[in-house]
Amino acid sequence: MAKVYVFDHPLIQHKLTYIRQKDTGTKEFRELVDEIATLMAFEATRDLPLDEIEIETPVSKTKSKVLSGKKLGVVPILRAGIGMVDGILKLIPAAKVGHVGLYRDPKTLKPVEYYVKLPNDVEERDFFVVDPMLATGGSAVEAINSLKNRGAKNITFMCLIAAPEGVEVLKNAHPDVDIYIAALDEKLNEKGYIVPGLGDAGDRLFGTK
Ligand code: URA
After folding, report:
1. Distance (Å, rounded) from C-alpha 127 to C-alpha 100?
2. pTM for the whole thing?
3. Which of 107, 109, 126 has the alpha carbon at shortest distance from 118?
4. Distance between CA 34 and CA 12 in Å, rounded?
5. Dihedral in degrees, nearest 10, Cα atoms 207, 157, 91, 55
6. Residue nearest to atom 4 of ligand 1 (CA)
7. Which one of 2, 4, 14, 123 is CB 3.0 to 4.6 Å from 151, fit for a cystine?
8. What is the complex's ipTM, to 2 decimals?
């Protein structure tokens, strides 16, 4: 079953408070999302495999650890997921970046894929699918379907704020996908916004309101 991790580090919680506030402007919002994504990536990469190599310090020879070079990928769900990419790449700069775009079908209200571009070696990479908000879970489920349909095997989902409803939907649809969250909020409202949330993450990131 999927594991759900809530990253309640004080720095993450502090920065979240400021992105939640309605008077926080676009520039600050974007910078804070970037910083939170970096802090989350630090926690999310805790289990990366290491190799031991021989090195020589100015004092003696010793064995020391380096990353074993696991291939990683970051896949933002368009468009708000883009706001998390640079922050993650600060820690894992060699990761490749894919993109998944989804729109909501006006009749079925279900997310439908309109754009997918992934690295060629999908099957060999571990992916972080990222979106600031996990609301109903529909987009996250569909984005992960898009990756799995193209051969991705090892996927983690990372978001800033989640609603319990979305976590349940994602866990049930993809029990093999662990979920990393900075804050688990109360609920969804009747318009599908997370409460208390932060409003529309895409609009706040890109200043389109
Ligand atoms: N998407 C958002 O940007 N905000 C929400 O509260 C829910 C979905």
Report:
1. 12
2. 0.96
3. 126
4. 11
5. 180
6. 200
7. 123
8. 0.96
